[in-house]
Design brief:
Length: 168
């Protein structure tokens, strides 16, 4: 059953992205809190705040690249899943609806939300946070919307996967 494999890969990718996205900023903190003489030598012309800012920017760029690739990979997996579901006989209407809704969410996130987050994020990367930049509420709102929609997509996929496992 290729449908189960594709959906499982899609869900595993989602969980991996959540782990990776939260891990990059934690890695910056761990590197900055560690005592690495080469890092200290390389960044000696920068203040601690400047070093943190540069490293956080690098982490942000890594996350941006991950999320762009993640979105496009999900579109491919979602389309592949829909094609397989459309070719099934008899057709599983519930699976088609759930997978179609998941794909619709991914399309909105990939084609609208992610590019907006990336543009806003790059615009505020080097802007002081006190006071907060005027773009920050919109950035947080889009980031929150992404998280909620991606979470709903994950739970819909888990529900569909559980349905298929229990049906077999």
């Amino acid at each position: 059953m290729f449908e189960v494999a594709i959906l499982s890969a899609w869900l595993a990718m989602t969980l991996s992205m959540w782990f990776a996205a939260t891990g990059t900023f934690g890695a910056v903190r761990r590197v900055l809190e560690g005592s690495n003489p080469q890092l200290a030598e390389t960044t000696k012309t920068l203040t601690a705040d400047q070093t943190r800012l540069v490293m956080r920017h690098a982490a942000s760029e890594i996350n941006r690249a991950y999320f762009r690739a993640y979105g496009w990979a999900q579109l491919v997996l979602g389309l592949g899943l829909l094609v397989l579901l459309l070719r099934q006989t008899p057709r599983d209407s519930v699976a088609l609806i759930v997978a179609g809704m998941m794909l619709a969410v991914v399309a909105v996130l990939t084609l609208y939300v992610t590019p907006e987050i990336i543009a806003l994020g790059r615009g505020i990367d080097f802007v002081p946070r006190d006071p907060a930049p005027r773009e920050m509420p919109r950035f947080r709102m889009l980031h929150g919307a992404f998280t909620v929609l991606d979470g709903l997509k994950l739970f819909a996929g888990l529900g569909l996967l559980a349905r298929w496992i229990w049906k077999s």
